[in-house]
Amino acid sequence: MPNNSVITLFREILDDSSILSGESLKSRFYHIWKTDVQLESLCLLLPRSTDEVSAIVKICNDYNQEIIIHGGLTNLVGSTISNKNQVVISLEKMNKIVEIDENGKTITCESGAIIEDIINTVKDKDLLLPLNFGARGSAQIGGAVSTNAGGLRVFKYGMTRNLVMGIEAVLPDGTVISSLKKLMKDNSGYDLKQLFIGSEGTLGIVTKVVLRLYRLPKTRYTSLAATNNYQNVLDLFKTMENKISSNLTGFELLWTNTYSQMVSDKTLYNKYLPDNYKYYIFIEYMGGDFENDYNKFEEVVLESVDKGIIDDAVIGKDEKEQVNIWGIREDVAVLADEKEFDQHFDISIPVSLIGEVIDKISLELKECEGVKTIFPFGHVADGNIHFIIGKDSDDDKLKSEINEIIYSNTEKVDGSISAEHGIGLDKKKYLIKTRSQDEIELMRLIKKSIDPKNILNPGRVI
Ligand SMILES: Cc1cc2nc3c(=O)[nH]c(=O)nc-3n(C[C@H](O)[C@H](O)[C@H](O)COP(=O)(O)OP(=O)(O)OC[C@H]3O[C@@H](n4cnc5c(N)ncnc54)[C@H](O)[C@@H]3O)c2cc1C
Q: Counting atoms of ligand 1 from 1, which one is nearest the CA of 200?
């Protein structure tokens, strides 16, 4: 059957408004990072239920039709790019909250629910979904699960994997695997949900999830601290862990040029501390004791200054100031606009080596002709550092040169080329720098046994 005849079969499952093809596809723009481009696809399908997803996938499997899955499209690794022969399935209409269990502290929702909407919904019930990252207003929970997203609170609450209790997913042959249990403990055989977490949509389409929630903390305080020495960053972390461990929910780092650009005249952010230090640390404290929490937090910050662990610090005096301080960290993505072209990295490095490795990488990048701006920042407490690198050209040779500098330095310290964003299409070539040939072969074996026709997100990851 010619490919576009599958559209006739889709019409037996979906109403016309849920199938975009031909002329109607032209109105659909596909947002890749900073640019809107025309979506290339045979058709874009917008199912409203798991049964519809299953029926669509079954047809695709019967007719060897390749599928690309779209969540909130915020990935930075080319995972959702499609061509004119591929069917795109977007989960955007499957965004319902199915149930909130206040006593059991869980939420069950469809995979197209936007992360920020889930956060706000459970907040009304005094519950916290600790997933927190810059793209939370667009990213969907299905996308976060499929990429095992991290963010600003990983060292405290873990990656998305740690928050997933149950999953419903559609396999590449249309079978629905549903295990929407709210159990912390279940050792009855293989933990199958792990197949779908972090596998970037190559093994199944996630349609529903059960997430673990926490009681909403009542207080939140923020401090921005500065030092010139990486050992002091580590000492500050140790001090915070010793003194306020259960209340420490954020510990993020910006290098000097990233900070100074974020508080320059070009942005709206206040320069809370002078921009002549080497490191800027963003600390978040959350607790439940209105009376004492502020004093407890202030005490440990002041003690760190007195002991010379940090050179300077400021504590947000009210909610507005806290939001502004965190904005300097959370909005770093705007630095990608500094130059016409940019490359993004999210590497993992052993925490104690971060200072020297980032210095070495930055030095090598500076010597690389064509690199115009270098902005390092990241989740220092869990070893995940990001780079936004600005360039005036999109030259492939320059791209490879930059990749080589970052990834070989990462490889040398047994790091990972992707701490959170995944592999997608963009990093496939470099997977071998971080996983052994045997590991990659095992991934291929799993893919082959679940998706023998290679129809689901083909060509991504492996
Ligand atoms: C400003 C900014 C900040 C970011 N910060 C972070 C950060 O701190 N931490 C972090 O981890 N990431 C971060 N990201 C990356 C990105 O937001 C995450 O990877 C996010 O989880 C992607 O979700 P999404 O819904 O946008 O998925 P998409 O981009 O649509 O898809 C990502 C992958 O998952 C697949 N997929 C999507 N939905 C499903 C589904 N229901 N079932 C199966 N497969 C599916 C897609 O095919 C694709 O392979 C950031 C991105 C931006 C733009």
A: 49
Most ligand 1 atoms within 8 A of CB, residue of 34, 39, 69 to mutate:
69
Which residues of the chain are modeled with pLDDT < 70? 1-4, 32-35
Report the pLDDT value the prediction gives residue 105, as an integer from 0 to 100: 98
201 lines ligand 1 (CB under 6 A): yes
Mutate which of 39, 49, 54, 74 for ligand 1 pocket (most atoms within 8 A of beta carbon):
74
Q: What residues does each domain of the chain span?
A: 3-90, 97-215, 219-330, 333-421
The structure tokens listed for 203 are: 């093994």
List the one residue out of 354, 328, 146 whose CA is nearest residue 250.
Answer: 328
Ligand 1 pocket residue status of 112, Cβ below 6 Å: no
* Residues 6+ positions from 113 with CB-CB distance below 8 Å: 95, 96, 97, 140, 141
Which one-letter amino acid corresponds to residue 225? A
Which CATH code is given to the segment(s) 3-90?
3.30.43.10
CB of residue 205 inside a 6 A radius of ligand 1: yes
Same fold, 219-330 and 333-421: yes
Ligand 1 centre to CA of 146 (Å) is 8
277 CB-contact burial (10 Å; exposed 0-12 / middle 13-18 / buried 19+): buried
Q: How far apart are the CA of 304 and the centre of ligand 1, in A?
A: 37
Distances (CA, A) of 358 to 228, 310, 365, 384, 415: 14, 20, 10, 11, 12
Q: Report CA(143)–ligand 1 centroid distance (Å).
A: 5
Atom of ligand 1 nearest to the CA of 74: 26
pLDDT of residue 4: 66
Which CATH topology does 219-330 take?
Alpha-Beta Plaits (3.30.70)
The yes/no answer on whether domain 97-215 falls in CATH 3.20.20.70 is no
Q: Is the CB of 76 under 6 A from ligand 1?
A: yes
CA of 74 to the centre of ligand 1 (A): 5
The letter for the amino acid at 226 is A
User: What does the pLDDT read at residue 27?
Assistant: 79
